[in-house]
Each structure stands twice: as C-alpha cells, then as structure tokens.
Amino acid sequence: MDEVRARGIAFRHWDDLIGDPALFAELLEVVRTTEDWTVPGKPHFFKTAIEEEQTMADPMIRTALHPSLLGAANAFYGLYSRLVSANIVQTRIDASDDRNRRGSEGWHRDPEDRPMFKAFIYLNDVTEVGHGPFQYVPDSRPGGKYEPLMPRFGRGVYDMTYKTRPDPERADAEIDPADIVTAFGRAGTIFFCDTSGFHRGGYCTTQDRYMVPCVYQRPASQYPSKLRLEAPQGASEAVRRAVTPY
What we know:
The chain is α+β, with helices and mostly antiparallel strands. The protein has seven helices and ten strands.
C-alpha cells in the first residue's frame, strides 16, 4: 500500500497474492458460461451479475473478500472498508474505422470519494495495445502536475453539475505519454489503484478483455453500496464490516 500511496498504482499476480487456482478457475467458468453480458445504458462494456443479484457464494464476491484484497483495501484506507461491487467486465472487441472511446474509455476520475481504492484482476492476457489495457496517470492526483486539467475531486456523484472528465483534446495534448502507466499483464495480473487520479478503460481492437474490478470505499462515503449480502456465521470482522450497509 505504500506503493499505491506513493504512485497511485501497484501490480501483483494472483499466484503470488491469492494463490487459489480453484477460485480463479471458477471466475473463468463464469466467463465461459455467461451468454448475456449487456448492461442497459453502457454499450461500451458488459458485466456479469448485476450487483443486486449477487450472493456470498459468487466467485467475484469471494475474490473481493479474500483477505489479501480486502486487507489491502483496509490498509489503504486505514480502517474497515466497505465493498461496493465486484463483477466481471467484458470489454468487447471493436475494430471498426469509426470506433471512438466511449464513457469510461476516456480519461476520468471516479467521483465517489477521495481517495478511491479499487483492485482489478485480468482474467485473460492483456499484453498488447489491441487487448485493451487499463491506463493511469499518477501525476493527476491531488498536488500532481496534471491536477489543473480538472482540479475538483470527490463527492461529485451527489452533484449533477460535477465534471468527472477533463476535456479530451486538452488532456491528449498536455499529458506526456511518458507519464502514463499502461497496465499490461498476463492472466491473473492484479493491480491496485487510487482511481481519483485520471484513468481510462480498455480499448479492444484485437480481442475481448475480461477483468474483475473490486470497488471498496470508506464507510463514511455517502455513495450507496448496491450489495445486499449477509455475512456467513463465523465471518471475520473485516468481512462483516465490508458487506454491512451503512
């Protein structure tokens, strides 16, 4: 977490951090068996399991509540955090000539809180630009040289006039490519990120990308959790706090 606080992003791998091949296989089985990935209003990417329908048995939830991931979120915030969502996202291949970045594929900040902690897990190899790698700008966090591109942070979800995206032409012109971290990695790559900094999602032109985003927030955040889960008997205090609505 020192690395995330210093740089905004840190990389690990499933084998080293979680080390549960059976659980990873369950995530891949969800990918293999899911037929309808659509989410109303979000044509650029597709999710499994809308949050309200999830249970503690779902592999996405069990992954997000694994001590290595939940412990990282709690260490980042310095308190028991709340799990807001954990899904599998499909970013679909689109190599059409008129293809433009849409929605979260453009530079943006997550407006719900500051700082904002997420864990991402690639379920297939993302080793080329055409595979749709996640990108991040560490120097766009508070105090960074790119903060003036869009200086407001946090709680914008409660203010409909709040702007979460910088002007794309200005951002492309002013952000030095050398300051962009591109998240390449083989299947099982995990990266933790403070998404109050500028980031953007994959832009897939040669293959579909499958990724698990796990979203954690401080309990004081007013952003509502869509999860409605009951911690099993004997669950740790961290897990009980993570799934209990505040």
